[in-house]
TrEMBL record:
The keyword Signal applies. Residues 28-152 form the C-type lectin domain. It comes from Drosophila busckii. This is Lectin-33A. Residues 1-19 form the signal peptide. CDD domains: CLECT (cd00037). SMART domains: CLECT (SM00034). PANTHER family: MANNOSE, PHOSPHOLIPASE, LECTIN RECEPTOR RELATED (PTHR22803). It comes from the Eukaryota. Keywords: Signal.
Amino acid sequence: MYRFLCFLAILSLFSGLEAGCPPYFSRVGPKCYHVSLEKVNWFVADRRCRAMNATLMVFENETDREHTTDLLIKRDVPFNNDWRDAVWIGGNTLGLPREFVLSNDGGALPFTPWLPGEPNSKDEECIDYFRRAEKFGYNDAPCLSLFPFVCQTKALSKV
């Protein structure tokens, strides 16, 4: 029995298991995040998250945004004060006249930390998240742009 428990402990370390999170996800508060540095368009990012029974990341409030941004920095997301160093967010305005909604169910975005001057273009129908002038926030972007992405799911238990 002792060997089996040791095996499970080692396996959890190597598979990225954290309390209440699926493999390869990291826990931040009540959510689990999977950070992918692979650059893909919004549609591919959305499908990849759904394949992991997750959705593209969306912030619930300012505390969620701050803690999640800390995780992204620790996971080497290259936020270099440039729109090309963004990650995809789970919101878009596809099929709607400039009304950004959650991509998973069409509901209202719970928190919208837009960067100053954003959203600013009717041709940019998806949302990314990046740093501009040392401030992090949402930006509208063409859905076919290539960015890393972050998937989220709810944690199964409390820490």
